[in-house]
Amino acid sequence: MKNLLIVLVLSTTSLGCVHAQERDTVKIKTLPDLQPGKKIRPEKDNLNLNTLPPEYYNLDKESKLSENYQLDFTYGNQKNKNSFSQFSASYSKFIIPTAMISYGIITRNNKSLQTLDQSTHIEVCEHFNKPIRIDDYFQYAPAVAVYGLDLAGIKAKHNLRDRTFVMATSYIIMGATVRTMKDNLDVTRPDNSNNRSFPSGHTATAFVGAHILFREYKDTSPWIGASGYVIATATGALRIVNKKHWLSDVITGAGVGILSAEVGYLLLPVFHNILGINSTDKNLVIAPSIGIDNYGIGLAYTF
After folding, report:
1. CA dihedral defined by 105, 114, 138, 205, rounded to 10 degrees?
2. Cβ within 8 Å of residue 206, ≥6 positions away
3. Is 223 buried (19+), middle (13-18) or exposed (0-12) by CB count in 10 A?
4. Is the separation of the CB atoms in 264 and 170 below 8 Å?
5. Within a 10 A sphere around the Cβ of 161, how many other Cβ atoms?
6. Beta carbons within 8 Å of 165's beta carbon, 6+ residues apart
7. Model pTM score
8. For burial by CB atoms within 10 Å, which of 4, 101, 224, 294 has the most?
């Protein structure tokens, strides 16, 4: 029953995030067709109020008033998207992490999936006898790269303030989720050290940074975006090699990390509106505090 409730909560959270992203229409005023040399009259009848979906409206558009007083617009994308494209844009980013988390929760009561965990563990033990401890450092590498690449001159999608906000929020959400699941789902580690195996906190930490790295630099270079996932996947694999986690622990940890990062990006415009960060006379400084067993955030806001 406890596992079923957790699946329902995760599904509800994902759907809430999706509906939070539903697109608003953008209303603009356009001028009627005018003949060259004809003057514009300010009467209301000469202005039409139209609605455009967001794919027709972006920051790259240019507008100009030509000599014959016609108002011309140039949009970055004027093609109608089919229903599948709209579905993919709104839902795909939540389907994968939710499925990964659900897999791990279902494994707790599924003997076939538990057998897969056991067989994977046995196979690893046959090939690796000594632990490889670099996973303690690998888990933070993608997050460090989010800032390091910017310092190296490779510009990220968001500025330092927004990146830090997303990073801190994502890690807090991830930490709270992992701790809650560990406290309520007693799963013994492969090395029998304790019963806090599920999910993998190291993997979740790595995938938060990897997904933010992907979101920030995928437009600059797909290789940069993919590199974070490679390191995060290696972190999860090392947790299995070191006999600290089962396969299902690692898969769930990856899902928690990705979903936490997506929620962090969803909350960014919300906090912008609440705190008025866009105002030039206000400043926000955020300093995240991340440890193996604790997560925190320090905030200083100048009004």
Report:
1. 10
2. 138, 139, 140, 141, 142, 231, 232, 235, 236, 257
3. exposed
4. yes
5. 13
6. 264, 268, 271, 284, 286
7. 0.65
8. 101
pLDDT tens digits, residue range 14-36?
Answer: 444 444 444 443 444 444 444 55
Structure tokens at 74: 């140039």
Calpha distance 144→206 (Å, rounded): 10
Judge if the upstream peptide bond of residue 199 is cis by omega within 30 degrees of 0. Answer: yes
**CA dihedral for 238, 241, 247, 249, sign (positive or negative):** negative
Which 3 state secondary structure label does DSSP give 14?
Answer: helix
Q: Is 62 helix (H, G, I), strand (E, B) or coil?
A: strand
Write out pLDDT tens, residues 248-265: 999 999 999 999 999 999
Hey, what are 28's tokens?
């603009």
Write out the DSSP string of 63-118.
Answer: EEE-TTS-EEEE-S--PPPPHHHHHHHHHHHHHHHHHHHHHHHHHTT-HHHHHHHH
Residue 284: strand, helix, or coil = strand
Reported residue count of the chain is 303
Burial class (CB in 10 A: 0-12, 13-18, 19+), 79: exposed
Per-residue pLDDT tens over the stretch 92-117: 788 999 999 999 999 999 999 999 99
The set of long-range contacts for 174-178, using a CB threshold of 8 Å and a minimum separation of 24, is: 174/204, 174/205, 174/208, 174/256, 174/257, 174/260, 174/295, 175/201, 175/294, 175/295, 176/295, 177/204, 177/256, 177/260, 178/204, 178/253, 178/256
